[in-house]
């Protein structure tokens, strides 16, 4: 997020929520959106193929067809330009490449956009007018925007919109992706990505490379590594021989479960460090018991780039160990086996506490340099970038200038989704999570209350489709795609429009990922979870 | 905001307008008892516990709603005030179960504290009608015991002003007045999303967490502040721990991302930590211990799990990583780090992949 949760909740005059089921996926942010609408009449526009709960609080629901976000956004920007509602001063002072972008947007007149997206022209006009006239407006999105083959372009289009309206770098504005997992922001910040060291220092940049070579006392690879979505298929062509998985469950969370299983079966050596015998565990060669958040200390970074202290509350269960200890032991032993030793300042692995690791992060990750153990112990919670010990942290990004100087407009054209419905698979399935469960369900299915209140997989199905398919008393359905088939109960509801179903991946016996496909955004390598062609039948 | 001057219990106070008498008193360190007041919610003046005497006002006034203005002369503990408070408490207690000895809220109950403070036992009106509601809301999270409800409306306000779904309201008036959900049905049939905000503000055990029932009282638990393990909002949570078990999760009001609010997962979804399925010992496949080749079949003895000590498991694993690296090169190994683990652990996974193994094949589920 470029802005803070508080800032958005308190300062935004309007909200554009697209591809985020906020009240179920980021409930506390969802609550604050509801309060902003209820208490201070903030204006909310929701764009989502489904009638999510937040729609009840919106002045406008743009129900675009799945996979048509770019067309929708270009259409809105066309109207903003047509009416002269763009922020001309901002565009002049803070952006570049406006003219090229404008040419592309001019190709998206309302009628054409309405045809592609299914959103009526009047709604496009209403939305554009609200956006053009209500400032500041915050844009919020989540996986509904990114999990498409056009994910990166979808995000760029949202940046275009906010540049056009002069809403980036402003209190109550910004481009605000809501990050899913508790520490997905931190995992990215800490170099848990194939192309960057901690704090996004590129592995292909010589200065960064030599910085880490000096710190860690080894020669480092300058080749960008494989993404998660490439590593597993890499098993089949012999590229990947061994995988070390910390607390992830590809059988549940990766697309095309059958294919994932095939890859896992063929792997030479799989190390799984987990809390539970997950669905991936049957394929592991070694199972190492890690600990939950309650049994260790450290820090998490939330969606607004805020680093907060995690404190150990109970002893590790059984013989399990804090994960940082296990990782250190493994690394130490591997280096010993390789006969590598070095006197470099950060070559060693004998940490006595998470705070010692944080010291090393302070030294090597510039945006975390000032986020020290001392400050956190004193009760401070800081938002990066925080370059030194006296820096107060950064609640809003890009207030003076962008990282690259000027904000860049990018001309972007609509790309249809990879799999569109046909006669055999006539419906579109989108996937996601529900309020009461979490991701692959390893944690939430083992919480008594959460399981009791939402005990089994459900697929959302529109009434029209249900009656056409003759699904009435017995709500059990079979849903199939080109890759697999699941049986589960239908929830007959107008949350989804006719022709669309929505399923989750919380339950192994009927996980949506048995149907999804591993077709990736070419840049970010994110799978297109949000559009799968399926057929629904009675059982 | 104009600056004003007023007097409380003979003490002259200078402050600014736009506050209630209660807020001014609290800032000045002057105690006024309350039951239906919560600093995070708008005041309602429902319980009248906070009545104070304000000179030149005809009757006692609730401090939690009365605006502080210039020149007020206020007495917070005059005999009339004290008698009225005691009377209100006696009325409340007369229709209260008085089973503090087994009540989960004991030690953390505003009614109990005030009864203690005002020396109210049993109540004077024992002959009056007593409520006897069934305690049977079937939801898995929240125990609803209307017998302990003092109709302070804090839950109603929390559901409206925190979560925003307005699942709770007060039905009927007078003796039959009671809180109800949706159209006076069960919580599950109402718009409730089990965020637990109502439980957090309820001053008694009328609304209490089912999971914590009988597990420990407030003075028996250790409270540890930490951060939620589910989504990226990063709610600050306070784990209540007894005998090395988390029995309850609360939230503190100073969490920068959540200001005391949570959702159902953060507040009620913590018990996975203690689930019997938790892996408690390292396990390796038998073929590894036997020094055999990996079996083709997954049904045979060689593919069975064997529990080991850490030393064995780590040695086998490190050795395998090293030999794979030697034989097929560093890029034949992939590392999936975890968006559930800490920054420190993610940093180490990055260092392990790049330094110890020599590959940039590291990623996590940000894309999934
Ligand atoms: S749990 Fe939350 S949503 Fe449910 S009644 Fe209480 S405050 Fe309202
Ligand atoms: S349930 Fe609790 S919070 Fe709600 S009115 Fe009764 S006593 Fe007050
Ligand atoms: S309590 Fe709910 S909203 Fe808050 S971090 Fe946890 S899962 Fe997210
Ligand atoms: S606290 Fe003021 S009336 Fe209840």
H and E order of chain B: EEHEEEHHEHEEHEEEEHEHEHEHE
The level-1 CATH class of the largest domain in chain A: Alpha Beta
Which cofactors or ions or other ligands sit in this model?
iron/sulfur cluster, FE2/S2 (inorganic) cluster
How large is the share of residues in beta strands of chain B? 15-25%
Protein chain pair with the most extensive contact, residues per chain: A-B, 150 and 117 residues
Explain what the structure shows.
Chain A has 20 helices and 21 strands. Chain A has 539 residues and is α/β, with parallel strands linked by helices. In chain A, the strands form 6 sheets. Chain A has a 6-stranded mixed barrel. Chain A starts with a helix and ends with a strand. Chain B has 368 residues and is α+β, with helices and mostly antiparallel strands. Among the domains of chain B are: 75 residues, Roll (Ubiquitin-like (UB roll)); 58 residues, N-terminal domain of TfIIb (Single Sheet); 85 residues, no CATH class. The interface between A and B is large, with 150 and 117 residues. β11 of chain A pairs antiparallel with β13 of chain B, so a sheet runs across the interface. One iron/sulfur cluster (SF4) binds next to α6 of chain B.
In short:
The complex is a heterodimer of chains A (539) and B (368). Chain A is an alpha/beta fold and 539 residues long.
């Amino acid at each position: 997020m470029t802005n803070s949760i508080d800032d958005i909740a308190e300062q935004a005059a309007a909200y554009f929520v697209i591809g985020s089921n906020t009240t179920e996926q980021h409930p506390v942010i969802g609550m604050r959106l509801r309060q902003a609408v209820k208490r201070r009449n903030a204006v909310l526009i929701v764009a989502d193929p489904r009638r999510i709960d937040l729609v009840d609080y919106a002045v406008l629901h743009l129900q675009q067809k799945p996979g048509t976000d770019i067309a929708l956004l270009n259409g809105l920007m066309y109207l903003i330009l047509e009416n002269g509602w763009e922020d001309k001063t901002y565009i002049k002072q803070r952006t570049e490449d406006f003219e090229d972008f404008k040419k592309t947007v001019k190709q998206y007149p309302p009628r054409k956009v309405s045809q592609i997206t299914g959103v009526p022209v009047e709604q496009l006009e209403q939305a554009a007018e609200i956006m053009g006239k209500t400032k500041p407006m915050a844009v919020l999105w989540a996986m509904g925007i990114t999990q498409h083959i056009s994910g990166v372009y979808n995000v760029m289009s949202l940046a275009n919109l906010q540049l056009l309206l002069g809403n980036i770098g402003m209190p109550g504005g910004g481009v605000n992706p809501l990050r899913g997992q508790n520490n997905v922001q931190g995992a990215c910040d800490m170099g848990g990505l194939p192309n960057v060291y901690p704090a996004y220092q590129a592995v292909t940049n010589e200065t960064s490379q030599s910085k880490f070579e000096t710190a860690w006392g080894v020669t480092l690879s300058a080749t960008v590594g494989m993404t998660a979505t490439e590593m597993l298929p890499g098993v089949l062509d012999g590229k990947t021989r061994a995988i070390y998985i910390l607390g992830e469950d590809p059988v549940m969370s990766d697309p095309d479960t059958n294919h994932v299983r095939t890859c896992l079966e063929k792997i030479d050596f799989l190390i799984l460090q987990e809390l539970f015998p997950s669905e991936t565990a049957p394929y592991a060669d070694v199972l190492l018991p890690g600990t939950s958040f309650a049994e260790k200390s450290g820090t998490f970074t939330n969606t607004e780039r805020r680093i907060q202290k995690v404190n150990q509350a109970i002893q590790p269960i059984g013989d399990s160990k804090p994960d940082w200890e296990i990782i250190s032991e493994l690394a130490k032993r591997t280096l010993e086996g390789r006969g590598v030793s070095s006197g470099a300042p950060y070559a060693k692995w004998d940490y006595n506490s998470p705070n010692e690791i944080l010291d090393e992060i302070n030294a090597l990750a510039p945006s975390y340099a000032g986020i020290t153990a001392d400050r956190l112990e004193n009760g401070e919670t800081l938002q990066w970038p925080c370059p030194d010990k006296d820096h107060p942290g950064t609640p809003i990004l890009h207030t003076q200038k962008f990282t690259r100087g000027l904000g860049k407009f990018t001309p972007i054209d609509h790309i249809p989704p990879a799999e569109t419905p046909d006669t055999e698979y006539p419906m579109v399935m989108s996937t996601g999570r529900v309020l009461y469960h979490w991701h692959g369900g390893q944690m939430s299915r083992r919480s008594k209350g959460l399981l009791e209140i939402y005990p089994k997989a459900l697929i959302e199905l529109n009434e029209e489709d249900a009656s056409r398919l003759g699904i009435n008393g017995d709500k059990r359905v079979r849903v199939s795609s080109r890759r697999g088939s699941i049986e589960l109960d239908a929830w007959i509801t107008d949350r989804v429009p006719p022709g669309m179903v929505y399923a989750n991946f919380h339950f192994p016996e009927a996980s949506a990922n048995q149907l999804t496909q591993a077709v990736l955004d070419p840049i970010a390598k994110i799978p297109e979870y949000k559009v799968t062609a399926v057929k629904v039948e009675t059982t | 905001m104009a600056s004003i001057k007023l007097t409380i219990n003979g003490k002259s106070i200078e402050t600014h307008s736009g506050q209630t008498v209660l807020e001014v008193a609290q800032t000045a360190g002057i105690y006024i008892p309350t039951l239906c007041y919560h600093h995070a919610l708008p005041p309602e003046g429902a319980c009248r516990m906070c009545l104070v005497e304000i000179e030149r006002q005809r009757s006692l006034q609730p401090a939690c709603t009365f605006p502080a203005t210039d020149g007020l002369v206020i007495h917070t503990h005059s005999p009339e005030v004290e008698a009225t408070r005691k009377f209100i408490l006696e009325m409340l207690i007369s229709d209260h179960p008085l089973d503090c000895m087994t009540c989960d809220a004991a030690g953390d109950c505003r009614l109990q504290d005030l009864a203690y403070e005002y020396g109210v036992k049993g109540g004077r009106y024992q002959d009056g009608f007593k409520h006897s509601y069934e305690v049977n809301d079937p939801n898995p999270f929240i125990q609803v015991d209307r017998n302990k409800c003092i109709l302070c409306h804090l839950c109603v306000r929390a559901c409206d002003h925190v979560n925003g779904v307005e699942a709770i309201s007060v039905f009927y008036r007078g003796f039959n007045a009671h809180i109800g959900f949706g159209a006076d049905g069960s919580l599950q049939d109402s718009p409730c999303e089990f965020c637990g905000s109502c439980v957090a503000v309820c001053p008694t055990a009328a609304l209490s967490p089912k999971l914590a029932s009988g597990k420990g009282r407030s003075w028996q638990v250790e409270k540890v502040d930490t951060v939620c393990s589910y989504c990226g909002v990063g709610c600050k949570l306070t784990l209540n721990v007894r005998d090395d078990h988390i029995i309850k999760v609360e939230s503190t009001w100073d969490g920068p991302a959540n200001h005391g609010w949570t959702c159902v997962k953060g507040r009620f979804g913590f018990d996975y930590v203690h689930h019997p399925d938790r892996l408690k010992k390292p396990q390796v496949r038998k073929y590894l211990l036997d020094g055999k080749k990996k079996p083709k079949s997954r049904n045979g003895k060689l593919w069975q799990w064997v529990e080991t000590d850490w030393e064995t498991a780590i040695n086998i694993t490190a050795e395998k990583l090293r030999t794979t690296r030697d034989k097929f090169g560093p890029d034949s190994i992939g590392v999936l780090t975890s968006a559930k683990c800490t920054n420190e652990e993610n940093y180490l996974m990055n260092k392990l992949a790049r330094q110890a193994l020599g590959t940039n094949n590291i990623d996590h589920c940000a894309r999934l």
